[in-house]
Amino acid sequence: MYEIRLHSRGGQGGVTAAKMIAHAAILDGKYATASPFYGAERRGAAVVSFIRIDDAPIRIYSQIRNPDLVIVLDASVMETVDVLQGIKPGGTVLINSPHPVDMQGHAVSYVDLTAIALSLGLVIAGSPILNTPLVGAMAKLGLVSVESARLAIREAFGDERNVQAAEKAYEELKA
Amino acid sequence: MLMVATGNKAVATAVKDARPVVVAAYPITPQTEIVEQIANFVESGEMEARYIPVESEHSSMAACIGAAATGVRAFTATSSHGLVYMCEMLHWAAGARLPIVMANANRALGPGWNIWAEHSDSLSMRDTGWLQVYVGSVQEAYDATLMAFRIAEHDDVLLPVMVNLDGFTLTHIMQQMETVELGDFLPPCTVPHAIDTANPGGYGTLTPPTEHFKFRWDIERAMRDSVGVIRETEAEFARRFGRQYAPVEEYRCEDADVVIVAMGTLGKEAEVAADVLRNEGIRAGSARIRWFRPFPAIDFGDADVVVIDRDYSFGSGGILAHELKAAGMAPYSVIAGIGGQEVTYDDIAGFVRNRIPGGEYWFGVSD
């Protein structure tokens, strides 16, 4: 089982990101669960979502304690949240950032999702759309196939610029 | 068709496929997405039902009672405070022998205000005469809702069915789900005692002490008959659509020295706990109670039993634990998951390792 914890802020589309990633994995023939943690979140608060991907039906409903991958959609959450908490030895971090970030020796991939969204004019209510380019980055990491990523994005959003954003993130992701 | 859906969307999709004539509902967290989706289906023309937005849950059940009394399929959904607010009408629905189906998103009752998973809401409605099923996955939420209509409307049952799914833990998580082509799996709803304006009669009239007990015994007779109807329906569902269900989902119980009994998502998590324990050499199994009413016949031989209650009867004990005690067992009663309390498979494995037959343990309190 591959376990992903996604850190973002309320309103950044973290829940939909988790759904699209799970959907893409399911289209690849795997089993997946996307489970946002619902607390007393408000727009702008630090929030967390969980994604599990496996070859067998998933029977675990509790939160992910030891993720294989930590995604940081908004680096500012690191001021208040220990995003590395419980990460597996050898676990990796994917961060929305224009430059590499030191993550206590963990392997880090980075891509500027915000710049990609802004360059394509993908903005809702003043906030850049980060989740669709994120799905492209997941494909680059090999967690979902490119074709399934495209399908999952198109199912969630009609605007083809979202697929373009994912393709751009796929090209620009650096490890 | 393959979909990715939340537990709520699974229920709404099953209701669309079951084609009720009337849906009357009032929104409440974490159920709201169910009735929102159904309202969308009706608005878009995907569903032909009459959607009645009412001013309270008491009225939503009253509207369903009125609809079902005319002989048509009726559905509603609620949760927690909404469920207990319609308590009076739950008794009327069962007493009038109306095959209404309701989804309940299991949620704690206040105060303090808590919107997370707990089974106290539905279990406090235990004695209303409703059948109750508890589901453990998005797919099962869809499948059980479809089967609920067929079971409720069966001539030998004619009792309402409550489909329970854990608030947030299941209502708001997304998994894959296959919808089915129903065909004639769900025949048109017929209520033999439906209101017939050509043949007027009285409904819910004064029933004297010489008669009332006969009607109550008739509910119990239908409950007993429903055991066979549930089995037949689940077998027919498996034959047509390939997915197998049973009143109790047993996992690695055959040779088990200890069996974990739970309901809902904790019952699925318990399967993983059984795997963890087996890897340590402890022969554990999991028995997930799906149908709580009618309560299934269970027998785990000489195995120890660890029962997890996401509920409590104050002054007495865990409600599921009581059922096992009534079946002659001396379970280790664990109270865990109250108000959405986080419980992992490792925690459950710990309950099993530390079990004291006949004892009670409140997770997070007793230590």
Question: Short description, anyone?
Answer:
With 175 residues, chain A is α/β, with parallel strands linked by helices. Chain A has five helices and eight strands.
Helix content of chain A: 25-40%
The most extensive interface between chains reads: A-B, 20 and 26 residues
Overall tally of structural domains of chain A: 1
Count every helix of chain A, treating DSSP H or I runs of 4 or more residues as helices.
5
User: Which CATH architecture of the largest domain in chain B?
Assistant: 3-Layer(aba) Sandwich
Beta strand % of chain B = 15-25%
Strand order of the largest sheet of chain B: 3-2-4-5-7-6-12
Q: Note the total helix count of chain B.
A: 11
The CATH homologous superfamily of chain A is called Pyruvate-ferredoxin oxidoreductase, PFOR, domain III
CATH topology of chain A: Pyruvate-ferredoxin Oxidoreductase, domain 3
Fraction of residues of chain B in helices? 25-40%
CATH topology of the largest domain in chain B: Rossmann fold
CATH architecture assignment of chain A: 3-Layer(aba) Sandwich
Alpha-carbon distance between the termini of chain B? 48 Å
| Major sheet of chain A | 6 strands, mixed
Structure, explained:
The complex is a heterodimer of chains A (175) and B (367). With 175 residues, chain A is α/β, with parallel strands linked by helices. Chain A is 31% helix and 23% strand. Chain B has 367 residues and is of the alpha/beta class. Chain B folds into two domains: 2-241, 3-Layer(aba) Sandwich (Rossmann fold), CATH 3.40.50; 248-362, 3-Layer(aba) Sandwich (Rossmann fold), CATH 3.40.50.
